[in-house]
Structure formats: structure tokens, C-alpha cells
Amino acid sequence: MSDSSVSPGPFRRNPGRWLLLLHHLPPRPAYLRVKVRRRLQRIGALPLKNSVYVLPESPDAREDLEWLRAEILAAGGEAIVTTAGFIAGVREDQLEARFRKLPKEAPVKATARRKRSAPARAAGPPPPRIRGAVWVTRKGVFVDRIASAWLVVRFIDPKARFKFVPARGYRPARGEYRFDMFEGEFTHQGDHCSFETLLDRFRLDDPALRHIAEIVHDIDCKDDKFGRGEAGTIRTVLEGITLAHPKDADRLTAGGVIFDGLYQRFRRPA
Which fold has domain 9-100? Predict the structure, then answer.
């Protein structure tokens, strides 16, 4: 899932272009309908009909909808993500006005946290051993990409190098691994964000990392699955880092300091 919310900016960058999600959900499980509706609300999509939602076209919005589409398909539903230059029966100025009136994303409220269970060890071959690889991700890094890059350097590939590329169309060279990119080697799986996928694929069972994974998930997936009260604060801090550092490499460096601090905090009991 992407890490940004809808703003008036997309109208200036790409006027008259829209992303549409058309979907049909199975009757079971019953919670799926509520989950999908809440996710669409959190990413700022507007309903045109019961099963049709619209967003201004942008790389972030496309990834949000593509990952949601993958979840719907995995649950036995049907979903299509497509672009449109105009939407019949809807005036563009009215649609843009509706987006501009959307409230800013509400801070995450602390809720009763779901009981954790120890992550199951993956069956089959041992986790891959990667050393000194080039790790590729989408430009404009934010929450999940910053956290995942920190995890790679600290616990998976200390000599990792990073490359930042456009959201779509990039073909990795030999020795490159894509993370937090749609169709990447290490990206969203089911309802897991990329950070969680890396934990599972490399069998990192450290409880402190699981705490961080829950925070990253709640910010990135926008579903409040774990009810982490820290999520709103961490998001605000990382937003400040992105504003202070236009270059992606500098964002990884500054964000790494934040995740180093979180890791040390969660290694110790309250």
C-alpha cells in the first residue's frame, strides 16, 4: 500500500485523469465488505456507485488500488483498476470539489490491541541469503519504504545499496531486488505491508521488530488493524523528514535514526 493521502496536487499534475476501482465482493466472509469500505475511505476514494470508486490518478493512488484489488481477488471477489479521461454523468469541477472537501486523515486512535501470536516459521527452504545486493524501490520514499530499507540494512543485507525508480515499468537487472513495489520480489502479500513480508520471508522473529511492524502496518495499510496509538505520531515525524529531505537517500538516513530509536525502545520492557 502507498504512504500518502489525497491532496489537491494531483489535479494540477495530471488534470482530467482518474483511476477507477470496479469490484464485486463475495458474500463471505462478512467482514470483507466492511474492511474494503474502510480501506477505501482511508485512502480517500470517493464512491460513484456501490461498487465503483474513483481517485485522481497518481503513482500512490494506483498502488493503493492495485494492492486492494489483489486482496479482493485473493478473497474470491472480482476487481478491476482502470484509468478514465472523463467520467460520464459527473462534471469534473464537481468531482474535484468533492475531493478538496475531504477531511484530512484523522489521527489513529488507540484501541484495544489485538492479541499477538508468535509468527509461524515458514515451511520449505531456508530464507534467502542476500549480501551486497541492489535494492530497488519507488521514488518518493515514505513510511513502508523507509522502514523496509532500515530493516534490510540492519538485519538482512548490511552492505545493501538502494536505487529509486518510477513506480511502474522498471525491469530489475540481475542482482537487484524490488521492495514495496507492485509485483516486486518483497512487497505487500495479502493484508501484510512490505515490512511484514520481509519479516516473514527472512524469518525475523524479534519481538521488537514485530512492534515496529504493527506501527508501520497501521500507517501504511490504513486499516488500524493493530490499533497502535504511536502510529499518528510516527507518521507526523516521517512527514517532517520527507519535507526536510527531498532526496530519497537522505530520507532513508534520517528515517533510519527514528527506527533505530524505536527498536531500542521496544527491546526493553516499559
Answer: Alpha-Beta Plaits (3.30.70)
